[in-house]
Each structure stands twice: as C-alpha cells, then as structure tokens.
Amino acid sequence: MSHLPSAAGQKLKDEALTKLLIYFKDGNSRTFHGRHNASTYTPADPRELEIKRLKKYAERVQQHVSVAILYDLQTGQEVARLKNGAWV
DSSP string spanning the chain? Predict the structure, then answer.
C-alpha cells in the first residue's frame, strides 16, 4: 500500500539527486530520497551531501537492513550497496 506525497514532499522528491532503496529483514522495503538543502550555507557538492546523509541513515538502521542500495538519479547508476554491514 502506498500513499501520495504532499506537495512539499513531491517537491523534495523531484529535486533529489540521489535515492536510497532499503530492503528490511522483515520483508518490507522503503525508498528515501536525498535532501541537499542546508539552512545556513550552500553545499559545494550537493550530490555528495545527499550521499553522506543517506549512508549515515542506512548505517544507523543497519541491524534491520537486509540490503540497502544507493542510486544516482541523474545517471541511474548504483553508487553503493550496504550488505552484511559493509558498503560495497
């Protein structure tokens, strides 16, 4: 079952440069889109900031994660994969 994002959520999704697809050990999956906005400064490399934030989240919940895959939305390429607690 999925839901429709709010207008603000859709805007963040449209502006994202990366996304993280997580497959949890309980069989569920979830997609997280990167956010490169910063409150007081403009990041030099917004894509790298998104990757850093998404990796940090995946590492925080890794005990529940079967596989986490990080994608670059501009190229469609896989950037990194978290499996068995290690990025490959």
Answer: ---PPPHHHHHHHHH-SEEEEEEETTS-EEEEE-----SSS--S-HHHHHHHHHHHHHHHTGGGEEEEEEEETTT--EEEEEETTEE-
